[in-house]
Structures are given as C-alpha cells and as structure tokens.
Write a structure and sequence with these properties.
With 515 residues, the protein is α+β, with helices and mostly antiparallel strands. The chain is built from 11 helices and 32 strands. A hairpin with a 5-residue loop joins strand 5 and strand 6.
Length: 515
C-alpha cells in the first residue's frame, strides 16, 4: 500500500497568467443588500480553527445558505483556486479533491461527480461567494453554528485531530510509570503473538488480539477469498473470515477456524508514544517471518484525520499488519506502509487508538457471521458485454489517487476492433495532465501495470489495448503535433487528441507513455 499526502501545487504566476484568470479577491468590494432573498440580520462572523477570521467582504445568508468569499475561505482550507477565463469555470484543488463550479449554478463537480451546493455560487462586486458548509465539508472540515458569538465555526480535520491529540497527551501524563523493557524482552513476550498471513492475493502480518482473533491491515485482507495464519511454531490455521473492518483507518479483525495458543496482545488507547521514543517492530517483510527491527518515533502525522506514527524502524512489503511496540511492551501501532526509494526512513504505523476503537465496536453478530469481503473485481470477464466492462473499469479504476491529487478518468469505452483486439479507451482530465502529468508519471505507469495485471487475470485469452487519452479543444491550431493529433472540429476550434498511455498485453505487456 502506498499512501501519500501532499499539498496542492500552486501554478507558477506566469503560467497561470497565460492559461487562467485569477478569481477576484475583492478587497475593495462593498457589501450591498440587494435581492429580497438575502436575509437582513446582524453581521455573521467566521471562526476558523478557534480564531476569529477577518474577511475583506462580509458573510451573508441567502435562502438558508450562509455564503462566504470563496478565495479567502479556500486559502484558509489550504486549497488553490483558479478560474478559466474563457469558460468561467472555477476550479478548487486540495490534496485528493477537485471541485469545479460556475457562477449562477447550484451544482458543482466534486472529483467528477455532480453535487448540490445548496445555493448558487454568486458574484458580488468581483467577489465570488460560495456556501460555507458545502466548501468546508467537501474539503473535510466541520461546520457548526456558534450562537454565542453569532458566527459560523469551521474546523479543519487536522485541527480537530490536534485537539484530540492534545487531550490524549494530557491523559498520558496521568498514566502510571511502567518498567522499561529491552528489545529482547519485548521479543520474548510477544514474538509468538505476531503472525504471518497469506491470502490468495499476497501476504502480510497480523497481531493476535483474542483466542481466535487477529488484527491486521484492511488492505492485507481486501479482495481475499481465502487466507491462512502462520505462527512461529509452524502452525498453519485457516481463516474463517473478516469479523469487522474500517477502510477509513485501514484496519480489519479476522477470525481463525481454530484457537491460536499464543499470548494475546492487549489493545488500549492508553499508551506511551512520543516523538523520540524507542520502538520495536515485528512483522514478515518480504515473507521473512517475524523479523524484528528497532528504531525511534520520528514524528506523529495525520492523513485525513487518521493518526500515523512515523518511525525509522525498517519495514517492507509483508510487514503490513505487524506490531509496533513501545519500550514498555505496549502496542502503539499497526505497521502499514513505507515510502520507498528514499534515504529518509519514512515508515508508518496506524495508531493503536483506532484498533482499540474497532475492537470496542465489534458485535456478537459480527463474530458469528465472519466471512470474507466481497471482491471488488470478478474472477472473470468472459462473456461480459462491452457496457459491463466499461462500467466495471470506471467504478474500480476511474478514480486515481496521485501525489498531485485525485483525478477522474472519464468517457470509458470498450470495443473489439477488426483484428480481434479488445480496445479500451478513457480520457484523462486535460488540466490535471498539464499541471501534474510529469510529476506523477511514475505513479501512472504503476497504475497502468496494475490495471493490465487485473485485465489479463480476468481475460487471460484476450489481446487487450488500453489507451488513456488527452483531449482538449483550442481556439487556435496548436503547432508541433502530428497531423492526426490535431484536427478542426467544425466550429472554428481545433481538437487535440493523443494517447498519454498506450498499453498492450496478452502474455506479455508493452507500454508507451507521453508525460
């Protein structure tokens, strides 16, 4: 699993000036009560992450929606705002979220899907206004009404997480002093409690938290139809199924067919974990069962509200689901992923807080009905219609997460050509391609390889070509392109279209990219 988080890139000023027109900041705009739909009342304030946020133009309410200046609110939410001068479309980008909207429309496109904003985006004295709740909640912030201060209160997910973390640190100060253990002591106590998990799709690690219960990462067991747990005593125990899981925190609890006669690891949210503390990781990197590594906590970080422990204790593929212990032998994290091809030792574990929450929420009914999760992809696409193939690929591969943010592939089409090839085409967002194509090229290649692997698995006897395309209309004829890549479209404009990714496969894969 390769999770990454990045701030949205800001387009250089010169390039932005050539392609885009800025959204008006409206510093000199004057608020004027105009239409009857605007509700006249005491001026509404904005509290952002606990502090009153001054605005150059006032908030107002219209038809029940509270409107705020887009530019200022988006910047506070660490999003970039640009507007296409020709079309009037406004684009807001933040991490994995892209919003497109137009003045006068109630609807917006969020990652390619139509969503109602609750009120029309408005333009007042060169200032663009949007509903606060729509923009804030779409960018994963919370919105509440503060009656005492007559203000809308917005809290970003990282601010809320910091509040929770500070409360947790205060609770830690009240914890009793424990005896410190050496790495050898921790191994003696818990080595048998960490198991290797093999599935029909791969392998990972797990932590025994009950007589027949094993905690692991969701991505270890996702799409598995069978699995076995392997102990250091050479016991191979079949997995009955998944009891409960959380995609949000990437955790799952699985149940074995037979009890595991090993020490059970206690899960709690009361544990010591601070930057600089020593840690011990146990797991099965690359299938080397119960490998032990040690290091320190390098940092505490967050991704969409989930707390991660960054450490320099080495982990690798196969370590996912393994245990991270502190110097007191407390489980503080579930090893999850590492950032490869760097000398910075960027290894991450999900805080055990979420494992404790998952265990506490588990029900008797879930225990009785443990079963493997429905696979997201079928075993075979033999006999499937072209429409069924298009719908499946759009659902499972149409949204792509990259370091440049999340983008949608649209206009999926599958057809058999005259040579019997299954040709699959889709279009990449041209704006995303121009802004982030080069910087995310390696990620797109890996995405294409994964897609090719799954297509070959589901259609092993077919010759398959996948073409991910760039397409955009221009009011002029761009130069330097092949004659078949730029053509007039009949309305005075020129359409540019070419393959960004051309992947062909049967028993082997061939791929060309254009980034």
């Amino acid at each position: 699993m390769n999770k990454k988080w990045y701030k949205a890139l800001v387009l250089p000023t010169l390039a932005a000036g050539l392609i885009l027109a800025p959204v008006g900041n409206g510093a000199s705009a004057v608020y004027a009560a105009s239409t009857s739909a605007v509700q006249q009342e005491k001026e509404i304030g904005l509290i952002f992450n606990g502090e009153i946020m001054p605005l150059t133009t006032p908030i107002y309410k219209v038809n029940g929606a509270t409107m705020a200046p887009l530019q200022e609110l988006a910047e506070a939410l660490e999003a970039t705002v640009i507007a296409e001068a020709k079309t009037g479309i406004i684009i807001i980008r933040s991490d994995y979220t892209t919003i497109s909207l137009e003045i006068g429309s109630k609807d917006a496109l969020v990652n390619g899907k139509t969503v109602s904003m609750g009120a029309e985006a408005d333009l007042r004295h060169d200032v663009v206004y949007v509903p606060i709740r729509f923009l804030a909640e779409t960018l994963e912030a919370t919105v509440e009404w503060n009656a005492e201060q007559h203000a809308v209160e917005v809290k970003t997910w990282d601010y809320v997480s910091d509040e929770e973390y500070e409360e947790w640190l205060e609770e830690q100060e009240e914890l009793p002093q424990l005896e410190m253990l050496t790495p050898s002591d921790i191994v003696d106590r818990y080595d048998e409690s960490v198991v290797m998990i093999t599935t029909n799709n791969g392998l990972g690690s797990g932590i025994v938290i009950g007589e027949d219960l094993v905690l692991t990462n969701y991505h270890v067991i996702e799409d598995a139809t069978s699995a076995n747990v392997h102990t250091i005593y050479y016991d191979d125990v079949q997995v009955k199924g998944v009891v409960t899981w959380s995609q949000y925190s990437d955790l799952a609890i699985i149940q074995t067919e037979e009890p595991l006669d090993v020490t059970i690891v206690e899960i709690s949210d009361d544990y010591y974990a601070s930057k600089g503390d020593p840690v011990v990781a146990i797991g099965s990197p690359l299938g080397v069962q119960n490998t032990v590594s040690e290091g320190i906590i390098s940092n505490m970080t967050y991704e969409y509200g989930v707390r991660y422990i960054q450490m320099n204790a080495p982990i690798d593929s196969g370590s996912s689901g393994g245990a991270l212990f502190n110097a007191y032998g407390q489980l503080i994290g579930i090893n999850s992923f590492a950032v490869m091809e760097t000398s910075a030792d960027l290894n991450f574990a999900i805080s055990a807080y979420y494992a404790a929450d998952l265990l506490d929420s588990m029900t008797e009914e879930e225990l009785e009905n443990a079963a493997f999760l429905p696979p997201s992809l079928p075993d075979s696409l033999a006999g499937a219609s072209m429409k069924e193939i298009e719908d499946l690929l759009e659902a499972e591969f149409g949204t792509v997460m990259t370091s440049g943010g999340e983008t949608e592939l649209t206009k999926w089409k599958a057809e058999k050509d005259h040579e019997g090839w299954l040709v699959i085409t889709a279009q990449m967002d041209p704006r995303f391609y121009m802004y982030y194509g080069v910087s995310t090229a390696d990620e797109w290649r890996m995405w294409a390889i994964q897609l090719g692997h799954e297509l070959h698995r589901m259609l092993p006897d077919d010759k398959i070509q996948v073409r991910i395309q760039f397409q955009r209309d221009y009011p002029f004829k761009p130069r330097g392109l092949a004659s078949d890549e730029v053509k007039p479209n009949g309305d005075g404009k020129w359409r540019v279209q070419y393959d960004i990714i051309d992947m062909q496969l049967m028993d082997q894969m061939y791929m060309e990219t254009r980034f």
